[in-house]
Automatic annotation (TrEMBL):
Organism classification: Bacteria, Bacillati, Actinomycetota, Actinomycetes, Pseudonocardiales
Name this protein carries in UniProt: 2-methylcitrate dehydratase PrpD
Family designation: Belongs to the PrpD family.
Pfam families: MmgE_PrpD_C (PF19305), MmgE_PrpD_N (PF03972)
SUPFAM superfamilies: 2-methylcitrate dehydratase PrpD
Gene3D superfamilies, per the entry: 2-methylcitrate dehydratase PrpD
Domain MmgE/PrpD C-terminal span(s) in chain numbering: 225-372
InterPro entries: MmgE/PrpD_sf, MmgE/PrpD_sf_1, MmgE/PrpD_sf_2, MmgE_PrpD, MmgE_PrpD_C, MmgE_PrpD_N
Single annotated GO MF: lyase activity
Length: 396
């Protein structure tokens, strides 16, 4: 009986992308490149300067938390697989092979894995990065299965890192682990593909991955705001009613399934990074800022007296539902100097069911840097590779 690694490797080796798959790959390339370029001046760029290409680009691409998300698996697929493919000279097919494996592995790990505190982007990401790199390097199905097994020791990462550089760095480590594993498999290293099955069971996964459907089942969610995906829905909901607020906000009550705020571990954030993982700060920036952009997630913005006052007035009430970031809906009531305001929202802008328009993507790219739209106009995998190598050279 074939192991899970062998089944996934055979699927990846046989993958023949269709037009919709290729369109998703192109959008993912440009979105990942844009959010990586947006971090050009972030302190992590210097910190990560000595890391290899895949690790460096993945860490920098994730530090602003503006990259896409596969909702069903709660994994940031593209920020792992795009840098890996670029670093190993691959193209859209290599991306789709790695992305498809990551979506299926993350879904097999399930919500219970994420709820236990694992960072699924890293746990599912390392074996998937091995497939992306291996496909780019031209490995056989047997070698891809070996590479996945060789990536198992690096398949870790925890949510305690959220709000620190550790979150983006561990994503970079997962990406580089996949490259290393693929290169070792290419060189002739051996490993038991059953190691992936054993690991999957140890970290709480269950069942055989579903190999049917498009390359990336369920599609990818594109972020509209540069913060954790769990904050996208409450921010979007409050933006629908903020113009109706009169006078002073007296309090805000947020009702939502507890699962939908699992990554939001900072109730009283004091830094910009912590603010990206805070439900109370989602409320504060949605009410205080015309558009919660990069400036809304600086240390100074989070530390504003008005923001800190709003944090203290947020009341959270959990409702039933515990299986994903878009479970149910968010229900928010704002008490102010006028009649109480009430709003509900199930699907935020950018969700797979509400995909961004070309105009919305163009606006996001512009927010990532006024030169970004021009830099990415007509870009393909080769030109983005050259652009990142020029923008983020490795320190020797």
């Amino acid at each position: 009986m074939a192991s899970i690694a062998e089944a996934l490797a055979n699927w990846a080796a046989d993958l023949e992308p269709g037009p919709e798959d290729l369109a998703l790959a192109h959008r993912s390339l440009l979105d990942t490149a844009a959010v990586t370029l947006a971090a050009r001046d972030d302190p992590l760029t210097g910190i990560a300067a000595e890391l290899p290409d895949a690790a460096r680009w993945a860490a920098i691409g994730h530090v602003l938390d503006f990259d896409d998300l596969h909702v069903e698996s709660t994994t940031h697929i593209s920020v792992v697989t795009v840098p890996v493919v670029l670093a190993t000279g691959g193209d859209a097919r290599a991306y789709l092979a790695g992305a498809g494996v990551m979506a299926r592995l993350g879904s097999a790990l399930g919500w219970s894995h994420y709820a236990a505190g694992w960072h699924a982007t890293c746990t599912a990401g390392a074996p998937a990065a091995a497939v992306a790199a291996g496909t780019a390097l031209g490995l056989s199905a047997e070698q891809l299965a070996t590479a996945m097994a060789l990536a198992v020791p690096a398949a870790g990462g925890v949510q305690n890192a959220f709000g620190t550089h550790g979150k983006s760095l561990q994503v970079g480590f997962a990406a580089q682990a996949g490259v290393r594993a693929a290169q070792l498999a290419q060189a002739g290293a051996t490993a038991d593909p059953g190691a992936l099955d054993a690991w999957l069971e140890l970290v709480g996964g269950s069942g055989e991955p579903d190999l049917s459907g498009p390359a990336v089942p369920g599609g990818l969610a594109i972020k509209v705001f540069p913060c954790c995906y769990a904050m996208q829905r409450p921010i979007a909901a409050l933006r629908e009613i903020r113009h109706q607020i009169r006078g002073q906000v007296r309090g805000v009550r947020v009702r939502t399934p507890r699962a939908t705020v699992k990554p939001l571990i900072h109730d009283r954030p004091t830094t910009g990074l912590e603010g990206k993982f805070s439900l109370p700060y989602a409320v504060a920036t949605a009410l205080l800022d015309d558009y919660p952009d990069f400036a809304a997630f600086t240390d100074a913005a989070v530390g504003r007296a008005a923001a800190q006052e709003l944090l203290r007035g947020v009341e959270f009430e959990s409702t039933p539902g515990a299986d994903g970031l878009l479970t149910g809906e968010v229900d928010i009531e704002v008490t102010h100097d006028g009649p109480p305001l009430h709003v509900r929202l199930a699907q935020p802008p950018g969700a797979p069911s509400r995909p961004p328009t070309d105009a919305e993507l163009a606006e996001k790219f512009k927010a990532c840097g006024t030169d970004v739209p021009a830099l990415l106009a007509g870009a393909d995998w080769a030109t983005v590779r050259q652009l990142l190598r020029k923008t983020f050279p490795r320190a020797d």
